[in-house]
UniProtKB/TrEMBL annotation:
Protein name from the UniProt record: Probable Fe(2+)-trafficking protein
Gene3D superfamilies for this protein: Fe(II) trafficking protein YggX (1.10.3880.10)
Organism: Anaeromyxobacter oryzae
Entry keyword annotation includes Iron: yes
Protein task: Could be a mediator in iron transactions between iron acquisition and iron-requiring processes, such as synthesis and/or repair of Fe-S clusters in biosynthetic enzymes.
Entry-linked PANTHER family: FE(2+)-TRAFFICKING PROTEIN-RELATED
Keyword Iron in annotation: yes
InterPro entries in the record: Fe_traffick_prot_YggX (IPR007457), Fe_traffick_prot_YggX_sf (IPR036766)
Residues of the signal peptide: none
Amino acid sequence: MARMVMCKKLGKELPGLTFKPFPNELGQRIYDNISQDAWKLWLEHFKMILNEYRLSAADPRTNEILFQQAEQFFFGEGAQLPPDYRPPPSKG
């Protein structure tokens, strides 16, 4: 049976994550309070952040930026989009 959480992002009880996503306090908060559905939304947002900010895994500041964005995405008013971000054209 799936572990259920009251998802802070989506505002309803949903299956929780099966793993702690980061080895820090934020990772524990996400594990305790964020659903699998909200995590999937974060992964899409995360890809956009990496591309738009041109972040590199080799840069030590990358984790700091991603943790700040995750904090805002899950527990704040929502993450800031990069200033030059333009959504991709819709298909269809």
